Amino acid sequence: MNTKPLLDYISKYITLTDEEEVFFISKLTYRKYLKGQYIVQQGDICDKTSFLISGCSKTFYVDDKGQEHIVLFAIEDWWVSDIGSFITQTPADYNVQCIENTEFIQFSYQDQELLLDKIPKLERLFRKMIEKALVSTQKRIVRGFSLNAKEQYLYFKQHYPTIEQRVPQYMIASYLGITKEFLSKIKSQILLEQ
Question: What is the model's pTM?
Answer without folding.
Answer: 0.91
